[in-house]
Design brief:
Radius of gyration: 24 Å
Helix content: 40-55%
Shape: elongated
Largest sheet: 4 strands, parallel
Number of helices: 13
Order of helices and strands: HHEEHHHHHHEHEHEHHEH
CATH class of the largest domain: Alpha Beta
Number of domains: 3
Bound molecules: cobalamin
Strand content: 5-15%
Structural class: alpha/beta
Length: 305
């Protein structure tokens, strides 16, 4: 009988080894055999059960319920029948508890990897509610659900990528339909030097454009010296640096950014700044707060303001 290690089973199922270990400790889905050296090894039956649980989780079943269903029939030797919430029948592959219709529609489209439907769902919400409300009611709950799904199962990265694409495109399309703000002394929005996450910045740009405030988005992984140069060259009214995770390089680059020119205001956003002594900067707690500060700073910097 072929016996497999954690790494081999993880690779076969397309989940992370840590997710497999968690299924073992949390749901009792452990390897039932041992190697000659005493290490845990998965049998073909173990792998079949894990595969069934994984498929059920991807189809929207809670991992605990899927594991319980699998364990319930373990002794009979039958193929497990796991209750599934099927996409299209009201359920979704991404659980968004308490969310409204818009978020559920977006989650369903994302879980099915239906990029156009996902983009349409975001665009419809942006047009109907405006960026601030659409971000909180529709987009954020689904992003958080996608992140939680990945953290719990180690799978679904493709959903996160598709969601990112759909949300980004919808925010850009929405922004493109708004009147172009004046170009003077824009607000700069940038991801820190190691940062891939920039969706909050796309949301900030759309919300700023709705209020007639010009901004420039420098995107992910912006080197701090380049950001300082951009701030100086554009005479930026303010700069917002986003960090999802701590990054010492971003902190080290702040003094040069603060010195980019006499009137620049520096804002830091995102959980990566938590607990950082960042000096004379403003730390908005959420999107509405960030947009309110940026709007005020930009207005104050206008010749008539
Ligand atoms: C989409 C996404 C990605 C996309 C990013 C694409 C893009 N262009 O942005 C991709 C797939 C590339 C990605 C990559 C990675 N990701 Co990612 N990702 C996410 C996801 C699902 C959404 C990110 C997001 O936009 N969040 C914004 C909102 C939705 O988050 P929020 O909690 O509501 O925000 C709070 C505040 O930030 C604030 N807020 C919300 N919006 C705004 C706006 C402004 C302007 C302000 C000031 C505040 C603010 O209010 C909220 C309440 O406090 C999150 C899950 C999550 N919960 O955020 C993971 C998440 C951020 N990713 C995570 C990780 C680990 C990664 C990777 C390291 C994975 C890997 N091993 O490669 C890489 C990072 C690589 C790198 N160098 O940066 C972790 C971070 C954990 C941590 N803190 O260490 C998360 C939390 C997933 C998880 N549950 O573990 N990711």
């Amino acid at each position: 009988m072929e016996l497999l290690s954690v790494g081999e089973v993880a690779a076969r199922l397309g989940v992370s080894p840590s997710a497999l270990r968690m299924w073992g400790s949390r749901y009792g889905l452990v390897a039932s055999a041992r190697s000659a050296g005493g290490h845990r090894r998965y049998t073909a039956e173990d792998v079949a059960l894990l595969q069934a649980v994984h498929e059920a989780v991807l189809a929207g079943t809670d991992p605990a319920a899927a594991a319980a269903a699998v364990r319930g029939i373990e002794d009979t030797g039958e193929r497990p029948v796991i209750p599934r919430r099927r996409a299209g029948a009201g359920g979704t592959g991404l659980a968004v508890p308490g969310a409204g219709r818009g978020a559920r529609g977006l989650a369903r489209a994302a879980a099915r990897l239906d990029e156009m439907r996902a983009e349409d769902a975001v665009l419809a919400a942006l047009r109907a509610e405006g960026t601030l409300a659409a971000w909180d009611d529709v987009v954020r709950p689904v992003l958080i659900a996608a992140g939680a799904h990945w953290a719990a199962t180690g799978s679904g990265i493709e959903i996160e990528h598709l969601l990112t694409q759909a949300v980004t495109t919808a925010l850009i399309r929405h922004t493109a339909t708004l009147p172009e703000p004046p170009s003077e002394r824009p607000v700069l929005l940038a991801g820190g030097p190691q940062e891939e996450h920039v969706l909050p910045l796309h949301a900030a740009r759309a919300a700023l454009a709705e209020g007639g405030v010009p901004s420039r988005l420098l995107g992910p992984r912006t080197p701090m010296p380049a950001l300082a140069t951009a701030a100086r060259r554009t005479r930026a009214a303010a700069v917002l640096v986003w960090l999802s995770r701590a990054d010492p390089e971003a902190v080290e680059g702040l003094p040069a950014l603060l010195a980019a020119h006499r009137r620049v205001r520096v804002l830091v956003g995102g959980p990566g700044w938590d607990g950082v002594e960042a000096g004379p900067v403003t730390a908005p707690r959420d999107l509405p707060d960030a947009v309110a500060v940026l709007r005020r700073v930009w207005r104050e910097g206008q010749p008539s303001g």
